[in-house]
């Protein structure tokens, strides 16, 4: 009988890192129910609450990112990294993992450095179409790099690359339209727009949406507007101030399967998780990449879809003036919605989580 596996999954910071990590853990548990899984995150970051909510144990490192501009904090960065690598090494010695997975985020690098220095099988899951700096630096140390986009050999050694796609909950595409409209209290017949700004919310999308509320009401468009915690109170007040319209501001949408099913058109940032979900759900989408991310990777994610005629791109700079002109045009053009939907579905990789776990188990098997 195979011995129970021990696996460390490291990283986090945003939902775009956390949700794939949990999906990998869930698939591991499904395949090998006796697997012991330890998450390692960064203290004070989102993963420290979201991972326990998903039913897994997590340990935090005192690590944060390097500021893009010079600050006194940057002088302490090497010290923080050294201490984080040392603590990660102690965790590895105590937990004795069969393999380590890095999904990106502050905690990923120290754990992978500690693991690879001990010859522990290691795998990186790169979600974006433009590789992050940490993953590029670690590429020659790890055994396998699972990617979501083609042509990633410009960043990583080709012999370690596997094109798997991004882990997405397959149930995200299982929502029923009629059930979804009823769940959110929406009319079954009116056009519906879903606006999602990522797990932390998006200032530009929120401001543009707030300004467009009268236009949406006058056009008879229903709105599901995921605002994030910071913007929610004001957004809720603004939405409720529009009489006669079904314009809903929501701090967080738990049932994203139903939100996607209810929508005719989606306005979204272009984080890796959002893009992968749009591909799987086959939704006509307008992407507004965040400019506040490393290497402008959201624009590159969006262009990977736009180049195949699978989405519309509006820059953050132009969103205040152009976003809702485009959204209302697309909502009125059913044929164009269908074209975008068909093309984006061609890019979906619904078996990504299974493929990543296949690679992980193969690495463990080779070691053993």
UniProtKB/TrEMBL annotation:
Protein location: Cell membrane
UniProtKB keywords: Cell cycle, Cell division, Cell membrane, Cell shape, Cell wall biogenesis/degradation, Glycosyltransferase, Membrane, Peptidoglycan synthesis, Transferase
Glycosyl transferase family 28 C-terminal domain location: 192-346
The protein's enzyme class: transferase
Substrates-to-products reaction catalysed: di-trans,octa-cis-undecaprenyl diphospho-N-acetyl-alpha-D-muramoyl-L-alanyl-D-glutamyl-meso-2,6-diaminopimeloyl-D-alanyl-D-alanine + UDP-N-acetyl-alpha-D-glucosamine = di-trans,octa-cis-undecaprenyl diphospho-[N-acetyl-alpha-D-glucosaminyl-(1->4)]-N-acetyl-alpha-D-muramoyl-L-alanyl-D-glutamyl-meso-2,6-diaminopimeloyl-D-alanyl-D-alanine + UDP + H(+)
Membrane topology: Peripheral membrane protein
Family: Belongs to the glycosyltransferase 28 family. MurG subfamily.
Protein name: UDP-N-acetylglucosamine--N-acetylmuramyl-(pentapeptide) pyrophosphoryl-undecaprenol N-acetylglucosamine transferase
